[in-house]
Amino acid sequence: MVQARFKPGDRVRVMQAYPVGHVRTPHYIRGHTGEIERLCGSFANPEELAQMRSGLPAQPLYRVRFVQREVWPDYKGSPQDVLEVEIFQHWLEAA
Amino acid sequence: MSDQGKYRPLSYFQLMEVTLRELLVEKGLLTEEQVQCEVEEMRARSPERGARVVAKAWVDSQFKSRLLKDATMACEELGLEIPALKLVAVENTPGVHNAIVCTLCSCYPRVLLGLPPDWYKSRNYRSRMVREPRAVLAEFGLLIDKNTQIRVHDSTADMRYMVLPMRPAGTEGWSEERLAALVSRDCMIGVALPKSPG
Fold first, then answer.
1. At B119, is the pLDDT very low, low, confident or very high (cuts 50, 70, 90)?
2. Which of these, A82, B18, B103, B142, is most buried using a 10 Å CB contact count?
3. What DSSP character marks residue B189?
């Protein structure tokens, strides 16, 4: 199992990468900065599972909270509205 | 059945399902009975299961704390098996409204809510719920106060979410069964609120 590098409250940036294959990091959130809401546990890497490999070692999975106005500059709702997305650790870097 | 008697050729995915199923049975990896059993189990799951969980949380504050801490374990207490996936319950409060979407496909807490509605799987809902949730909720007839924070949960990986709605006023002293009847599928996705009594 891969060691968890982040804790709740840490600021993180989602990597802006576009590898081919089965990736569970939505395009719209790549390159954006948010805050770790919680560590969900460690899970087999879906990018590896999709290639019929084991997906091990398991990767830490986080819920990351993003402010809507930061993700969509023309967001029309309240400035306090947020979006929470599950992101695997190998897609995150400290911000 | 409205479509009875109308012949339609199988679609690409239906044909793939039949082919794969027949191959698995032919090779002895599955039996027709196992497939049938699984289909029946899938049909047996319905939003009433989720409503039971919500009603229990409304009347039992200790259960509610356990549900918010670890929803998988809390549901298992009620005899609801949550295979493999982790369930997360998110609580609506006077200041926070939660809603759930899966932008990548259509991940859904089937074990508690049964099969997802078609709109949940539509491109329209999936793309707009993260982009303009207030407009989407308004189309469901749900207007959220501008001082209430909206938290949209994109169910992208191994968690599944259910919204724990707020207990409607005027239901003091109600039994769990009576309360559960106020909780619809849509309130547990976060696109509606529980019915008010009366």
1. very high
2. B103
3. H
